[in-house]
Amino acid sequence: MTTSLELPADPVAAGETGVAAPVAIEVSHLTKVFGAPARRGLGRGRSDTGGGKPPAVADVSFTVAKGEFFVIMGLSGSGKSTLLRMLNKLVEPTSGTLTIDGRDVSRLRDGELRELRNKKINMVFQHFALFPHRTVRDNAAYALRLRGVNQNEAAQRADEALKTVGLEGWGDSLPGELSGGMRQRVGLARALASGADILLMDEPFSALDPLIRRDMQDLLLQLQRDHQRTVVFVTHDLNEAMRLGDRIMVMRNGKVVQLGTGAEILSMPADDYVADFVSDVDRSRVLTAGTIMRQPLVTARLDERPEQVLDRIGAAEGLGAYVLDEDGRILGVLSNDRLADAVHQRSTSLADHLTDQYASVPDSAPLVDLCSLVGRHSVPLAVTDDAGRLVGVVPRAALLAAIANTEEAPRA
Ligand SMILES: Nc1ncnc2c1ncn2[C@@H]1O[C@H](COP(=O)(O)OP(=O)(O)O)[C@@H](O)[C@H]1O
Ligand SMILES: [Mg+2]
Known about the structure:
The strands form four sheets. Strands 6-7-8-3-9-10 form a six-stranded mixed sheet, sandwiched between helices. Strands 2-1-4-5 form a four-stranded antiparallel sheet, with helices on one face. The two termini are 38 Å apart. It is 32% helix and 21% strand. By secondary structure, it is of the alpha/beta class. It has helices at residues 80-87, 110-120, 136-140, 142-146, 151-164, 180-193, 210-226, 238-244, 262-267, 272-278, 283-286, 289-292, 306-315, 336-344, 396-404, and strands at 23-32, 57-65, 69-73, 95-100, 103-104, 121-125, 198-202, 230-235, 247-252, 255-260, 299-300, 320-324, 330-335, 360-362, 381-384, 390-394. It has two domains: 3-283, 3-Layer(aba) Sandwich (Rossmann fold); 290-404, CBS-domain, CATH 3.10.580. Residues 80-81 line the site of magnesium ion. Adenosine-5'-diphosphate binds at residues 34, 56, 74, 76-82.
């Protein structure tokens, strides 16, 4: 009976965020067996009793912080839509609990539930329905009208939302006059106009062609940040997941196989299923300098003697070293050639031999930005933090290995 529960006891690796942000959604051991009577067999491990049918969603637990962009990813049939619909009570859970803004949703009365659906949460589907005979404005105002907002106010707020999504002036048009991408923008405008804090989105961009899709992703990210919305976004496309998600939850056969940031999933896929997904990803745009950097082999201080530094570089088989101040900021670079000159001239001051022959990037720089910078100097590319301190280096070989995904990638 535990066949559906072969994961460790807590599949979402508690505390993986360490972030103390307020919680928007808390899902605990949520299970759905289609055809099974709801709210029976609350105990874990009894979730696969629905006439032998495997659960569509099996014992899933996770927490979404307020303002987080949370992505649910997995192949078709992995239970993403079912899970998303349970968040909105479009699908009744077989067991488990769901809390939204600290309130147990199963305890809400009908009126409260309606309010939750109309005000707090808005759902955008892949092929979401626009009313063909109503104007774009009326379509965008739909959620507000449902809530009883009067026509004038609803129209005004709809117009604002249309402007935000780049559809200013289209309010009087009919949906049939819009392109597919524009119609999907109306869906976003409707979600925005509704004022809902939580947006549930089920593959909303899957039907769009790639360029429009990218625009919509950018627009959504911007809206989510500017308007502080919490987004739960379902997709089967890992590139989309990586672009959008603060965190990504990977599902398979109704279960959570991994939950983490894009870089975490990419650098440490939990199993072959995830690794398979990850193999398609453009690693150079997802991985950052910070995820692949190494410890610098040699660094030096200005008060050292040239031969000391030259010895250390020689021992490490390097071609040069970064010279750092006492806070770890880069003062310059000493190449072996310069150091050899210094020794030759019996010079005691390193400062006279410093050069600026190096390149540096912030730890958040995507690998694609590093390609033109590595291998050009005697020292490897420097990675610096916000304060300009040297936190690591990226040798050319490390960059190539990371992009090619050979097992040279460091774990730390
Ligand atoms: N209304 C339903 N009745 C019975 N089975 C369903 C229903 N909806 C989904 N399922 C089944 O649940 C599983 C998960 O489906 P779904 O949540 O739609 O996955 P996804 O969105 O990841 O493609 C599938 O096996 C699907 O056939
Ligand atoms: Mg689906």
